Amino acid sequence: MNTYLTSLLFLVPIFLLLSRTRRYSKRIPPGSLGIPLIGQSLGFLLALHTNTAEKWLEDRIRKYGPVSKLSILGKPTVFIHGQAANKFVFHNNSSILANQQPESFAKILGDRNLMEVSAPDHKRIREALVSFLKPESLKQYVGKADEEVRKHIEIYWKGKQVVTVLPVMKILTFDIICSLLFGFEQGKQRYQFLYSFQEMLNGFWAIPINLSFTQYNRGLRESVRAQKLVKELVQEKRVLLEKKGASPRQDLITFLVSMHDEDGKPVLTEKEIVQNVVLSLLGGYETSATLELAVSEAVLQEPQEIAKSKNSGESLTWADLAKMKYTWRVAMETLRMVPPVFGSFRKALTDTEYNGYLIPKG
């Protein structure tokens, strides 16, 4: 009797697991998880590096439809595509989907960045960042950005017969963001940070194998170096504010350091400032430089007319930008057709139904 009872207790969990697996297997999206840890990461990363990621995803959609399973960056993943997918991801409540990135992102960026924290921390950090980016704040940075553009043209464009636009546009974007977010002047410190930042980006999109020779490991090492540099800047800005040697709105770091609640406590911790400043740089660098405008006579006409109205060496103003209405519409239409963010990750907090398929918890 005891032997029978022991056997029964042993077999029941196995039976339940097998029945649950069979039930899941009929409803889990089509596709393959591939080799453990590797999955489809190599093909996906190759497509990213060769700028063919959209075609790679289109091939999946033709093969499996708009919902399929795969393994990316070491994690089982469900890929969903289309307007209904966008609505499902962006309008679902936080008890079903969490705003969580792949482990490689979290390890490199840290656990207190906007993409990792949940409400109410997400709301608090987001409001602090958005406060800096209001139009009334941005107006004072037009001249600063104009100065960076002039230096950039002098270095990378003037006298050149051929210019490969995207790489130098990314450098320009980095320079402008460094100026506005960090208050970095051009020089050794800025370019040391550029190297660390590029290695971090490469580390995001790498198979998360933490060995000394891997790109992921280099991304982790350079993340430590970059965050140390930003932390030193935060401390410098804090001292300057205390000595009345800086204006709160002169750059993002100074602004975030200066923010306090009604009780006089800092709105963000030092760790949150460091990680979210780096995240802001990532967001601007990856999206702004890839916005390609359709070059037409109408788009060229507006800036040419503004240039004619300016004296030699005179900086652009917010009023000048406001005149470029057609250019703005072209930019918005380009963003509508080709969103600058390649994709968005979420984590299923519970077994979730979508389009007749089951997305298992996790």
TrEMBL record:
Keyword Metal-binding: yes
Cross-referenced Pfam families: p450
Domain of life where this protein originates: Eukaryota
GO MF annotation: an example: oxidoreductase activity, acting on paired donors, with incorporation or reduction of molecular oxygen
Gene Ontology terms: biological process: sterol metabolic process
UniProt keyword terms in alphabetical order: Iron, Metal-binding
Family note: Belongs to the cytochrome P450 family.
PANTHER family: CYTOCHROME P450, CYTOCHROME P450 26
Protein known as: Cytochrome P450
